[in-house]
Amino acid sequence: VHVVESGGGSVQSGGSLTLSCTASGYTYNYYCMGWFRQAPGKEREGVARIDSDGTLTYADSVKGRFSISQDNAKNTLYLQMNSLKPEDTAMYYCAADGYYSGPYCPFGYWGQGTQVTVSS
């Protein structure tokens, strides 16, 4: 399974960016996919997640500003980020797995990450 993110960049506070993630090499009808981020000196944190049953989960810090979606025909996951803040600056990673159980998802497949920088 090959996971590749794109769409990162630099934006001013209050701006928007859309990240994309393509996952190839597998076809799962039952899956979980998500976005994570890690800022320098900080632990990696989950940002948003989507499961094959349509369940969406967001971190409290991004609720109302970020939106996760997918295009199954393109095997592509998106993260629409609006009202960006300097504290959103981080490396953003896409992750996926073909198994989940309730809130548990192993996220066994990861991309290399795409940098998002928000200036004040």
Task: Put the structure in a nutshell.
With 120 residues, the chain is mostly beta strands. It is built from no helices and eleven strands. The strands form two sheets. Strands 2, 4, 5, 6, 9, 10 and 11 form a seven-stranded mixed sheet that branches. A four-stranded antiparallel sheet has the order 1-3-8-7, with no helix packed on it.
Question: If you had to describe this structure to a student in words, what would you say it looks like?
Answer:
The protein has 120 residues and is mainly beta. It has strands at residues 2-6, 9-12, 17-24, 32-38, 45-51, 56-58, 66-71, 76-81, 90-97, 109-110, 114-119. The N and C termini lie far apart (37 Å). The relative contact order is 0.33.
What percentage of amino acids are in beta strands? Answer: over 45%
Mean pLDDT: 94
The biggest sheet amounts to: 7 strands, mixed
Order of helices and strands: EEEEEEEEEEE
Helix fraction by DSSP (H/I, runs of at least 4): under 10%
Shape: globular
Quote the distance from N terminus to C terminus.
37 Å
Give the low-confidence spans. none
- How many beta strands in the DSSP annotation? 11
Number of helices: 0
Instruction: Compute the CA-based radius of gyration.
Output: 14 Å
Structural class: mainly beta
Secondary-structure map with pairings?
Blueprint lengths: L1 E5 L2 E4 L4 E8 L7 E7 L6 E7 L4 E3 L7 E6 L4 E6 L8 E8 L11 E2 L3 E6 L1
Parallel strand pairs: 2-11
Antiparallel strand pairs: 1-3, 3-8, 4-5, 4-9, 5-6, 7-8, 9-10, 9-11
Descriptors for this entry?
mainly beta; 120 residues; globular; 52% strand
